[in-house]
Amino acid sequence: MKEQFTGSFTQQEPIPDSGIEAAIAVLRHGRLHRYNLADGETSEVAQLEQEFAAYTGAKYCLAVASGGYAMATALRALGVGPGDKVLSNAFTLAPVPGAIASLGATPVFVGVTPALTIDLDDLEQKASQADVLLLSHMRGHVCDMDRLMAICDGAGLRVVEDCAHTMGARLNSVVSGRHGVMAAYSCQTYKHMNAGEGGLLITDDADLAARAVMLSGSYMLYERHGAVPDPAAFEAIKYQTPNISGRMDNLRAAILRPQLAVLDHQVARWNERYGVLEAGLRATPGLQVIERPEAEHYVGSSIQFLLLDWSEGAVREVLKRCAERGVELKWFGAGAPTGFTSKYDHWRFVESKKMPVSDHILAGIVDMRVPLTFSLSDCALIARIIRDEVSTVFQSQA
Ligand SMILES: *Cc1c(COP(=O)(O)O)cnc(C)c1O
User: Fold this and answer.
1) Among 73, 109, 191, 341, which residue has the most ligand 1 atoms within 8 Å of its CB, making it the best to mutate?
2) pTM over 0.70
3) What's the CA gap between 351 and 361, in Å, rounded?
4) Which residue ranges form the domains of the chain, and what is each CATH number?
């Protein structure tokens, strides 16, 4: 009998008891709207914002309805509008180009390297085409940020970081999201803190923070926030900034605050699992693990490997065989988007030029979720199954 994995790749851990209790308390008092306060009360949302600002070291933080909303709000605050071009990654998730398109702006895609990071040579060439880069740290892979910032500073490009997969990560000692002028995080179920949906936006820029708060639909109640600039910053922009409702509510914030308190612990648990998977996959014939720079203190909430130069048929055979043994792998090389997995040339609302070098890499990217409900022995078993099936198919090709 071949070994079989029977766990679920989409099952996250339950919400911590303290989060459930805090959520019930909110339900009992009924003040779910962030601006609905009892006398002297600080809302759950405002407390979450203060705590996330403290966690990241940012001056200002705004909690919103989703990660995609956070990205779009950052772009709006920066003044991106219809017809503008915004640079972004060819290898990312659909809400990233979607955030750009939501403003009537047009994404200009930048290629991907075999390290699964943005191609900085390509960025250098395209830098003059836009004023803003929406940089996605896709699947937690972080590029050489010193070089990226030098390119962007040189070209007058402002950087918004999409940290959906790097919440809790650091590059050297710098918290992910602290290189760019603004950074967006997601609190969707499959990310690092689970509120079902939700997003967080950070910045040190008082004007951008004030604009983002107004955009999120603060009415004129911004003084009920806990991590915002002085009222003067709002005075300057409050009548010019539309309300594009996308607030977070107290229920979600109540669920998130206890998760933020244990985020670093969760990161360590993810990385233990990642380590077991990576060690188990290393030296599999035909398979390349993604080497991670020492400076990158990543969050191993998913793992990728490359089947470079494999035929489509052979990759599909690996996916099928692994699926038959209970291991769900995703592939970025498919001709059409499947589930959460898509790439630049699937997003047909944008006219994009073919990127042969990136296409070659995308055609080899295999991706797997690592929920914390997996034990370390689950991870070892999954790695054995992948290794076994990749080797079998690879040898049959030779
Ligand atoms: C999930 C995700 C987002 C946005 O998150 P939502 O909260 O679902 O809108 C942005 N970027 C990447 C890379 C993501 O995976």
Assistant:
1) 191
2) yes
3) 20
4) 17-261 (3.40.640.10), 263-397 (3.90.1150.10)
